Structure of Peptidoglycan hydrolase FlgJ:
Amino acid sequence: MKTTNPGFVHDISNLERLRAGINDDESQSLRAAAQQFEAIFTQMLFKSMRQANEVFESDLMSSSNSKFFEQMHDEQMASELSSTGSLGLADLIVSQLGGEEDAQSPIPPSEQDFREAIKEAPLNLPFDTKGKQPDKAMVEKAADDALKIMQQAQPATFTAPLPPLKPQQNQRGFDSPQDFVNRMRPYAEKAAHAIGTEPSVLIAQAALETGWGKKVIKNAAGNSNNLFNIKADPRWSGNKVATNTLEFHNGIPVQQKAAFRSYDSYQDSFNDYVRFLNQNPRYSEALDQPADPVHFIRNLHKAGYATDPEYSNKVISVMDTVNRLME
């Protein structure tokens, strides 16, 4: 970690030296500018904490003069801290802007190191504060508050590696309706057996909802595997993804944003579909007479599964195609 002598924070010759050094050593100038930025950021932290503490100040101990010297004290402390790299922000800026291409990612200081840096930062103040020293408890509180803010703002390069995402299955796209039917058939047969209906109606419903698998809702990992476009209501505690959807209100299609459930696999999607129907009393009529797939999907539609007034007719039409592909 490189350090520089910050000097007096209000010495404008520092800026002149920074400007003059740009052509001499670009990397050193970048580091100096990064430290200036870190100092400004630290000053903002101190200023916010001072303002939060004003409500507890006594009129006898607080005046415009004392606030003036407190501000100069805080600015000098921020300059000293930035010169020692206590926060690590300058190192990060230099690394990301290419000033030190071969430098390793900066290692964040420990909490104890940070607190000690705050408490022990040398203050080269060129004025007489008449013996007034910052309260120790206030300084330690400032260190704690600043540390919390830095931890919350800490970029990903400062954190431990995230655990790898659980690999999702069935990421390969579908080549054709026949391919969709062939790959969905084992899942549909299992789910249809649990419901007591025909697998073709479930495949048809999934085909209509996803455009034969080509329009499955995407998430950050690539595929939500949500074949039936089941929304993530308050009862859902699993992964979810937000996207635009077309809903019908009084027969009029309206675009709106909604949260949908996200699964690790297509098998999970079929399993949750069965569970979703069984856990919702409004679908009891559809589940009471599931043997006839036409009656099943019409009762499902009637119970409010979809807002499209032609939903059940569309599923039945697709089911005719599915039955031919399953022969």
